Amino acid sequence: xxxxxxxxxxxxxxxxxxxxxxxxxxxxxxxxxxxxxxxxxxxxxxxxxxxxxxxxxxxxxxxxxxxxxxxxxxxxxxxxxxxxxxxxxxxxxxxxxxxxxxxxxxxxxxxxxxxxxxxxxxxxxxxxxxxxxxxxxxxxxxxxxxxxxx
Length: 150
Fold this sequence. Notes:
The chain is of the alpha+beta class. Helix content is about 35%, strand content about 35%.
């Protein structure tokens, strides 16, 4: 079971994970990313805006989910990623993995979020308190974390 959701609406992590709990495994691991109040080049960040190309994005997320399923023998996984304007404090992304044992679920969850940051075609813009905005460039630390799974 693989669930891929790309949407503007907020989500309830517990509701999104419920189908994984019903698969009969021994573990469900998850990660939820929240928009944080950073101080960017234009001042205090009040929101982020995410853009994507729908068909390309969903395909990339499905590839990641299938890779995790094969590598860790998952019973199922869920990836949900929001797009549009997201206020500080709101959830942006959730990945969850169900497996027979915790090690596989935890490793698959880490793989999914690490690779999602570099492999999924999302473009992020920071919105600042003063009304200006700036596109966010890829971080070397994200690339390093993703590369460790090769």
